[in-house]
Amino acid sequence: MNILVTGGAGYIGSHTCVALLEAGHTVIVADNLSNSKAATIEKVKQITNKEITFYHMDMTDELVNTIFSNHNIDGVIHFAGLKSVGESAEKPLDYYYNNIVSTMVIAKACQKFNVNRFVFSSSATVYGDNKVPFVETYDLLPTTNPYGETKAMSERILTDIAMANPAFSVSLLRYFNPVGAHESGLIGEAPNGIPNNLMPYITQVAKRKLEKLRVFGNDYITMDGTGVRDYIHIMDLAEGHVAALNNLTEGVHIYNLGTGQGTSVLELIKAFEEANGIEVPYEIVDRRPGDIASCFADTSKARQELGWIVKRDITEMCRDAWRFEKNYK
Ligand code: NAD
Ligand code: UD1
User: pTM for the complete prediction?
Assistant: First the structure.
């Protein structure tokens, strides 16, 4: 299939391009490079030895129609979006505009050009502070930040479009915590500035770029008091998109993409130290506002309906994250 990957130069998008190309699909990437570099596309080509057509374009601009005119698009994976929870509280309008308008512009182009396969990047954040493991049938709780609201709203918009047009097939993928990098070490997660997320913070402490990790709270009701999350290897997540695309049928389908395993902050630090033989200094500080104690997936639906299972464990996540960071300039 000819797949338009919006945000394909970003972290999850670039790894998904690798998985799509390896599965035999043709990939067209559109990205405004607001949080990524064109060089990443070159790395994806190098890894796969395949071509990619790249458009430097903003997905809120109706110019995206030209991509649909130029290519016979069979499906879209819509990654393009702003993703920082903290920043979304400071710049809500930027988040609502970018994330919602892009979803509507792409969906409108799909309607116009009769493209009926749509895969959307949602987040486990839409579950709020619910009972773990999170199941796709849960009612969505209001999230505590504009970023989370843009994901919940985009889910609703796409659901309503599918209600109105029975031919439209949508897969809403709720990601848990993607970490790690492609096994080649050529592409990975390279956040701008000081990382907000745990794994890139750990790798930068390991590189001695940052002095020590701050562990946000050790008084949660979890096995060791620190926050528990469902870390998933980025290539497993990428392969989840190929499975979702290949199994897409009419209507709306929601899938958790996680491993189903909860890992605490202290457990992740230990796993990283053991996998790479490097000490990660840390201190316990206050909780981070907005954090929940535990977040992990019920993965049975994705397993049963998509035949998708994760293949890589926490040691590989730590090893691959470090391999990328070590080489990254
Ligand atoms: P990322 O920032 O690395 O990638 C997003 C890409 O979209 C970037 O290349 C950026 O330049 C591009 N982009 C943003 N706005 C755009 C626009 N208007 N037009 C064109 N390109 C635009 O982030 P990521 O981690 O790869 O996340 C991809 C998607 O998955 C996002 O929608 C994010 O909200 C969602 N998501 C990410 C996580 C995570 O932990 N990384 C978790 C849940 C959901
Ligand atoms: C965060 C976002 C979530 C988003 C996800 C992936 C918040 C509140 N949530 O999730 O919406 O989908 O990123 O982008 O920001 N931790 C530390 N020290 C650090 C960093 C993190 O102890 O320096 C802890 C956190 O308290 C948490 C765990 O590590 O328990 C994971 O944090 P993080 O990587 O930021 O992901 P989430 O909070 O799960």
Answer: 0.98
Which fold is adopted by the domain 2-181+230-260? Rossmann fold (3.40.50)
Domain boundaries, the chain: 2-181+230-260
Q: Which residues line ligand 2 (CB under 6 A)?
A: 83, 85, 123, 125, 177, 196-198, 201, 213-216, 227, 229, 265, 288, 290-291, 295
Q: Compute the distance between CA of residue 255 and CA of residue 305 in angstroms, rounded to an integer.
A: 9
Token pair of 318, please? 């730590």
The helix (H) or strand (E) run that includes residue 109 is helix 102-112
Identify the H or E element spanning 15. Answer: helix 11-22
The residues, any chain, with a CB within 8 Å of residue 81's CB and separated by 6 or more, are 7, 98, 99, 102, 121, 150
| pLDDT tens digits for range 163-214 | 999 999 999 999 999 999 999 999 999 888 899 999 999 999 999 999 999 9
Among all bound ligands, the one having the nearest atom to the CA of 190 is: 1
